[in-house]
Every structure is written in C-alpha cells, then in structure tokens.
Amino acid sequence: MNTKLYREYGTSMAGLRALGYDFDHDDYHSFVHGRLPYEYLKPDPVLRSLLHSLPIRKVIFSNANEAHVAEVLHRLGLEDCFDDVICFESLNPTNQIDNPSAPNGSVIGYDNNGELPESPIVCKPFENAFHQAFKMAKINPHKTLFFDDSIRNIQTSKLTGLTTVLVGSSQRKTGVDYALESIHNIREALPELWESVSKKLDVGFSQKIAIETPAEA
C-alpha cells in the first residue's frame, strides 16, 4: 500500500489524505522522520566546498517537512549553503487541510470512475507544486537548473521549463538534460556555471541562475 501511494501521489502522506485519512501533519512527520537513522549521514566537505564556490542563488525544494530538511542539512554540514528552502510547510501552510471531496473516515479505494481521488496535499512530482514553488522563491524556470534523484520529478519539472539534472545515474532519459552519477561531479559536468560567473559571459543560462536541489535522506 505504501509503495502504491508513493508511486501514485509522490508521498505516502499525500496518498493517505486522498484516500480519506485525517491526521495531524506534524504528528505524522514526527513519527515517520523521528525514526530515521540520521546518524548515518556524515558531513560532506566536498559538496560544501562546491556549493560555496558557486556564487549563484541556490534553493532547496523538498517534499519533506522543515525539521527534516534542517536535520539533513545539519548532518551534512550544509546549513549555510542555500539561500532559501521550499518544503512541505511552504506548499501546505495549514496543519490540517480540508478535503471536501475525500470520503469521511478511513476509506481506501478508487472512486466511481475507477481512479484514485485527488489529494489535498501539494507536493512533487505534480506541476502545481512546481508552479507554487516558482512563485514563492521568485524563480524563472527558464533560467533555472533543477537537480533531483527522482526521474518522475525530473520529467515533470522539464514540462515546466526547467533545465534538468538527474543525480544518481549517468544514464540520460526522457526529460533529462544532464545526468550525474554523483552530485560531486557537478563541476566536471557543468563547468560553464563557474565560467559564467568568473568571466561574466552568457553561456545559455541566466545571469541569475537558481540551482534547485532536493534535500532527502
């Protein structure tokens, strides 16, 4: 069930809310993320150095809640590497979101048309989440690089006009502009980012480039 909801809705929480479950979002995040083995995350000085060497705006766009994003950044030693964070609370500002179209009580199943109901939760990989994030962060998608390790997020983001970078695979797929086996390879794969800053040349990106990067564990 968890796998299906994650696949259909982007997050299990979004799927549960679509199916009629009603719960406190803070309690849910506390329970789920509070049991993650954060101790396995270690400082990443290489990534920290790369991010600090790139003097352009960098924004995190994550489906996770603010506390989880902060904990991951702290463990990786990247707290001061980003200019803004768009997270669960940003896209879903109220703790409990009314969903009048959802059935009452804990009901699991398809609607009368054989389709899963819509979720009141705003999250990747759906386009409305990207457009909402663009407005909040004042980002022009046509002048922005988007990094993610989810091919679904990458393919949706491409539809919004973003230049896409798939992290964790060297295989380019539909919707992928760049593919990096490791985020540490960013400078080798995209040297023009550093060149555009040092030489002040137009290399196909905006003079103000925003790098979007997920913060997931």
UniProtKB/TrEMBL annotation:
Keywords: Hydrolase. It comes from the Eukaryota. Gene3D superfamilies: HAD superfamily/HAD-like (3.40.50.1000). This is Putative HAD hydrolase, subfamily IA, Pyrimidine 5-nucleotidase. The keyword Hydrolase applies. GO terms for molecular function: hydrolase activity. The keyword Hydrolase applies. It comes from Helianthus annuus (Common sunflower).
